[in-house]
Amino acid sequence: MAAQGESIEISKDSIKISYIRYLADSAPGFILIGALVWSAYSGSPEMGGLACFLRSPDVPTEVRAFFLLIVFLLATPVGLLVNALGWFILGKIQSRGATFWFRAAVSDDEGRDLAQLLMASTNESSRLDLLTAAFGLDESNFYKRTRLLANALDVHCPSAVSGLSHVRGLMFFVRSFTLLCALATLASVFRPIFVPWPAWLGAAFGLGLLLSWLQYYECLEVALACFTLVAKRDPSQLFDTAAAESKTDPYCLSLLLKSLSSPTVPET
Question: What whole-number distance in Å separates Cα of residue 143 and Cα of residue 135?
Answer without folding.
Answer: 12
